[in-house]
Automatic annotation (TrEMBL):
PANTHER family recorded: FORMATE HYDROGENLYASE SUBUNIT 4 (PTHR43359), FORMATE HYDROGENLYASE SUBUNIT 4-RELATED (PTHR43359:SF1)
Organism, as annotated: Anoxybacteroides voinovskiense
Protein name: Formate hydrogenlyase subunit 4
Transmembrane segments: 57-76, 88-106, 126-145, 166-184, 228-246, 252-273, 285-305
Topological relation to the membrane, as annotated: Multi-pass membrane protein
């Protein structure tokens, strides 16, 4: 358990670095080093935080609440092995709620300092999350129907042994529905641009403008961990091959290497999507997330009547 948490925490900046480096190469730029996110987190954690005089205790405790909530969600999402004593029936819903707790406190604290950009970012985040969270749940339910369980470890084991039929319509619908949700929840193009600071386009970045120092480092680190967990969830729901189902050391090492390789491949896919597509207008994002919900509902109906 503690090894899995340590791997999730330490591996998250690496995946962020892979995405940035891949985007830069696709745009004919050298780009930052793959290890740059580590340098950024260390730099911010060494600095003192500067808070507005109008800020309350919320601005102080929120970075810790967000970080702990995201890390706690990492206890339930399988990474390189399915052997986890923390899993229980319905932990799929708990993971979504833990993400929701982090989002709620982030949006609430963006209003704490009274800044206009923070309020704009939080209002956009809450409006989009009202559609993104049901879309995520429906996409997960569509996959859960294939195994008849809502326990993540049992779900991955069932998919590992039985698998999806790639040629069934429900597989393709659930795949694209989950991919849209992953792009939206990680705040990537075409839904959001994590590299911009333009007030007219930013959503998640707008809520972090009042943070600095170690508080900003914790918020950035938590966002990277959430991104890693969503990618891990996507991988093990649709490409679970190679995950360790026993405690054999050689199998675990091989599973970990394959897990990292699949993460890197999916990260490159996200970078490719960001490079090939422009950011869509904010008012069109609900339509994109709504299409994810429709795809998930169609996958559920097809799975029921197959």
């Amino acid at each position: 358990m503690f090894l899995q948490i340590a791997i999730v925490i330490l591996l998250a900046p690496f995946i962020q670095g892979v995405i940035k480096k891949t985007k830069a190469r696709m745009q004919n730029r050298i780009g930052p080093s793959i290890w740059q996110p580590y340098y950024d987190v260390i730099k911010f954690m060494k600095k003192d935080a500067v808070l507005s005089h109008h800020s309350s205790w919320l601005s102080i405790v929120t970075p810790y609440i967000v970080f702990v909530s995201i890390v706690t969600a990492g206890l339930f999402i399988p990474t390189y092995t399915v052997n986890n004593d923390w899993n229980f029936i319905g932990d799929v819903i708990l993971v979504v709620y833990l993400f929701g707790v982090a989002r709620f406190f982030t949006a609430l604290t963006a209003l704490d300092a009274g800044g206009s950009f923070g309020g704009m970012g939080s209002s956009r985040e809450m409006a989009l999350s009202a559609i993104a969270e049901p879309a995520l749940l429906l996409a997960l339910f569509a996959v859960c129907l294939s195994s008849g369980t809502m326990k993540l470890s049992d779900l991955v084991v069932s998919l590992l042994h039985n698998g999806w039929d790639w040629f069934t319509p429900s597989y393709g619908l659930a795949f694209f529905a989950m991919l849209i949700v992953v792009i939206a929840e990680t705040g990537r193009i075409p839904v959001d641009n994590p590299d911009t600071h333009l007030e007219l386009t930013m959503v998640h970045e707008g809520m972090l403008l009042e943070y600095s120092g170690r508080y900003l480092g914790l918020m950035m680190w938590a966002a990277q961990i959430k991104q890693l967990l969503l990618l891990s969830l996507f991988i093990h729901l649709f490409f679970p091959w190679g995950i360790a189902a026993s405690g054999d050391a050689s199998q675990i090492i091989l599973s970990f290497l394959l897990y990292v390789a699949k993460l890197v491949a999916l990260s490159m896919l996200l970078a490719f999507i960001e490079t090939m597509y422009a950011k869509i207008r904010l008012f069109k994002v609900p339509k994109l997330l709504g299409s994810s919900m429709i795809l998930s509902l169609m996958a559920i109906l097809l799975r029921v009547f197959e």
